[in-house]
Amino acid sequence: MREDIKIKRILQKAKYSVFIKIFSVFSLGIGLPVLLIGMLTIDQSTSHSLQQISQSNKKVLREKKMQYEQKINEIEQSAFRFIGQDAIWQLMDSNELTVKHSFLMANLASMFTATLSTNHEMESIYFFDNIHPYVIAETKYTKEDFKDQEALTLAQNMNPSFKMIHRKLQDQDVITFIKSFSLPSSSSIGLLVFNVNYKLFFDELAMYEIMLTDRAGRLIYVSEALANQLPQTYALGEILLSGKLDADEGVLDLDNTPFYMTQETSDKMDINFHFVQPYDQLVQPALLLRKTIIASMSIVFGLSLLLAFMFSGILYRPLSRLAISTRKYLGQGAAPQYKNEYQMIETAIAHMHEENSQITDKYKVAFPFLQKYSLHDLLSKGSLNREQFTAICRTLNFDLSSNSFAMAAIDFENIQINDTVREKLSDYFTERKGYMHCLRFELGDKRTMLLFNTDLPVEALHSELCELKTSLNNEGFELTLALSQPFSEIADIPASYRHALRLLDHKFFIGKNEIIYNMPLTQDKQDLFVDNKQIEKLLQRIQERNFKEAARAFDHITQSMIGQMEHIDYIRYIHFQICSQIISVLMEFRVDLKSSSLSKERIFQSIQRSETIEELDGFVKTLMEESTVLLDNANTQHHSDLIEQTKAFIRAHYCKDISLEDISRVVFLSPRYLGTIFKAQTGATIFEYVTQLRMQRAMELLVSTDMKIQDISNSTGYNTVQSFIRFFKKHFHMTPNDFRKKTYIASQKEEIPE
Hints:
Radius of gyration: 43 Å
Protein name: AraC family transcriptional regulator
Number of strands: 16
Strand order of the largest sheet: 8-7-11-10-9
Organism: Paenibacillus sabuli
Oligomer: single chain
Shape: extended
GO molecular function: DNA-binding transcription factor activity; sequence-specific DNA binding
Strand content: 5-15%
Number of helices: 27
Transmembrane segments: 20-42, 293-316
Domain HTH araC/xylS-type: 644-742
């Protein structure tokens, strides 16, 4: 009776255990999918909402960015118009002031005043240079007495040539634009400063939740709509620079309040446009869905309790039969000897495991390492487990009778290791088994390691490996092989193993399909020095479109990198930085990179794929050569556009009395420079082109009309009929009247019938 009660109690405990497990299964089996689906739905809902908001915000930001870039362009065009004035160049080129220069200063000041009167946002314009002691604004000032000393300081060491700055001017917020330019014939650098009213300039952003920062994270502008919501705008720049915002959008935590930010970057203005909104308002539907999921999970747990109670009794029946069979196997009859049925089953499994362990006991050292990468796991440690290694060698029939060892590493460059390669390696070393024992194992798809136990001197071993390489090369296999220094102790195998792998990395400098041998590795790391002056020289030669000199500067930079094994990743980084600075030069000169294959993503991928320094240098030189071609094409296209614009103006106004100054003013160039590029592009001077158009028009009027010579002279832009006749006779070798008579006689002859 007592035994039955004891068995009943054990079965009840077991049934309770089954109930707990079934409840866990139902809870996880139903509740977990509901939870995952709900979380996925919340995530998708949130992502969709944020995607829609992001697209809308980016559209607004792009519109505002383009609008303000247009404003910047107008200011920059104003700067170009002033730079195109002879007055500025004559003032910069003067050594001492004369009455003429005073007149030029007054003329320049009046032009500044006229520009300010037409632009209600602009408050002041200055001009000064680094040579002369005066500043020209609405009038002339000395630099010492000038009211805006900060502008003189900001203009020093200008880089880039056009800069935008937010600052205080006489307790008033202004946006200052500084344009620098230089006189080619001297070291004089001129600067134009435009001060724009801060509030008027950004007035169109006030109604949006928009803020502006520069590349350094400094705050430039916060709209009124956003200023009332942000808790600490002053710390936002540090948060942006900390990298918490991924790509162009993301969630930022400001004083424990989440905000969703979308941003656009203006390369023209060198500033960032940020659309900032409270995150909780944007994801309100997702929060409601989360509450619904919590309620659903409560229902799931209730159902799980009910189902677990129903099925625990049903599912326990086969478990009790298994328990009875286990008792019979253990020879315990029906009398329970264990705390519960599970303990009994575990005892049976442990008994079987013990029997299995006895079978494999004598191989327990070697078996864990007879898998792929097993020797790598053993040899890559700091010290070698001699017992494990010896057991593995016995299992693999590797002879350890000699006291001389060597390690080699092989990289197959053009194929992955396959059965054909394995067979050829096996045959090669089997033929030489009498005097050279080799243990081979693979690291990945293309690398294999060789451990030699041989009495051969290292020179003879090197010859054997050269013969192996030649044999495999003849089969079409390219391989790079590194042979370490010989050693005599088994304990030195891990160090030699690492030595061989490091030697193999030398193919970055030596090249692929070579044997790297007798090259000790230095223990002391040397700092890698990069000559920044040579980098600046390289970029200057690129701007000058002198590829030969740029390549020479690049060779000087890379020469110092040869053999710096510890700095291979840093060498790639230096090459990427050089390429990035070349791209920046192209962008500064407004080269259209979309029509070329140049992009930082492609450059980064190509540099990372380069396996040797020769490939790396070749890629960078190719990029340098392509950049010089793009710069040359951009310069030629710019000149062609200017010439077409000049021709169009001449064709529209040649009938009037126009001067070279009138024409050059249209394209914002000096008359001398315009004349030079016009002659180079067309082969004729501007005067010759105007004369040709006028003579063509005069010829048409003489032939097709009865206009007087005086009227034709006026219609073709000549002030006096004498000048017209002189140019006409020089061009056609006869007077206008003679030309009309000759043309009339020729036409009469054609009308006489034969």
